Amino acid sequence: LLSLMVVLSGLVLLALGMVTDRAIRDEYHAGLLLLLSYSHTLIKLRFIYATAASLLMTLASTVTDLWIVHVPMHVLFNSTGYLLTANIIGMFASYSAESYMRKDFIHDRTLKWERDRSDRLLLNILPQPIAQKLKQAEFENTDYTIADSFTNVTVLFADIEGFTKLSEQVSPVDLVNWLNQIFSHFDRLAEKHGLEKIKTIG
What is the DSSP letter of 24? Predict the structure, then answer.
């Protein structure tokens, strides 16, 4: 839609230039040059749309000057040369800006992915309230000792009887899978009952 508006604005300028006196026609060409520059920079069209719109306006201007207004050839070469130069400068500017924004976007996405990954790792080790306090202390760059007190607590210690002997009889892969099932079950129970897991293994 923005590209269409730019092209229509350019065509309006060309139409006004056709019906006005030859002495002030250059002012409309100057307006067209500004419009080309704006389409590549201030309006922030995507590179391909800005390039297509600006080249279309340049072509329309050249066709208008050549077959409708019948300007002298040296004037035609000058005006077309100015428009093409503006196109080249604008294309360079919009391509550089779009490339920078794309890299910045990818950088932000990578940072977010890394942040989410570190948050997941942190939550696998620490309870969520403690992890949040650690992150806040890191963000504020302050030394913060985390110590919460509770008037009444119940602590569950669970032990797998004969684990050492069992670990000698099964493969490491089977042992880890079995432990994962047990720990996952405890995690689901803790989440269901609103409990807080402090440690997984001693």
Answer: G
